Amino acid sequence: MSRLLFISDLHLSPARPRLLERFGELLEAEAGGCDALYILGDLFDAWIGDDDPSPFADEVRGMMRAFSGRSHLFFQRGNRDFLVSERFASETGTVLLEDEHLLRVGGLKVLLLHGDQLCTADTEYQAVRRELRSPGFRERMERLGIEERRALAAEFRRRSGESQSLKPADITDVTQEAVAAVARDHGIDLLIHGHTHRPAIHELEVGGRRVQRVVLPDWRESEPRVGFCLEASGHRWLELPPA
Ligand code: MN
């Protein structure tokens, strides 16, 4: 097995420059050293479109492009950056993944998700999610100017039922029913997702099969644990000591 890295929920924004620095540190440390880095959504605290001309967006694109020249880079959309599209992918050398991505690695079946689709107890959130992910919504957004989109994104976030706060207590957790359903549907050994900001490794049994559920950590300035790592010598948390 090669070295595969999984991160999510960095919530990068111009307001949190230290997190952008830490992302850059991880990319520099791992470029060429890992086989692939999977970003499982909410890389950005908000993404209003691939045509965002801001220096912040440019900086992130440049960092990712440098990395993807040396290791594979994959991106799955989260609920904060669901407008990431093909232009961003081509400008960063990233491969966009579907909302459910199945990976076979070293004899394991691994399912990758952002994780918000598992939070099925929050029916209002799920309704908003369907609206935001519809082709009609994307087309309406594409007709708007960048500043109008910026304002709309803020409003939709207020309506989404997910608080502006990034604390786990303000984000609905997954339901066991939804976890069991995706595990059964795909016959997986391992589920890796983010979104809930409740990092943990859960052991469960679905239809007589042992399944592990890894919940990725959200990023904090002084938190060394930034993701998860699959490699031949074992599975472990991915750490990046704060400088
Ligand atoms: Mn999320």
Automatic annotation (TrEMBL):
Q: Where in the cell is it found?
A: Cell inner membrane
So which domain of life are we looking at?
Answer: Bacteria
A Pfam family that this protein carries is: Metallophos
Q: What class of enzyme is it?
A: hydrolase
Pathway entry = Glycolipid biosynthesis; lipid IV(A) biosynthesis; lipid IV(A) from (3R)-3-hydroxytetradecanoyl-[acyl-carrier-protein] and UDP-N-acetyl-alpha-D-glucosamine: step 4/6
Q: Which SUPFAM superfamilies match?
A: Metallo-dependent phosphatases
Q: What residues does Mn(2+) 2 bind to?
A: 42, 79, 114, 195
Keywords (A to Z) from UniProt: Cell inner membrane, Cell membrane, Hydrolase, Lipid A biosynthesis, Lipid biosynthesis, Lipid metabolism, Manganese, Membrane, Metal-binding
State a GO cellular component annotated for this protein. Answer: extrinsic component of plasma membrane
**Which HAMAP family does the record match to this protein?**
LpxH (MF_00575)
UniProt-recorded name of the protein: UDP-2,3-diacylglucosamine hydrolase
Organism equals Thiolapillus brandeum
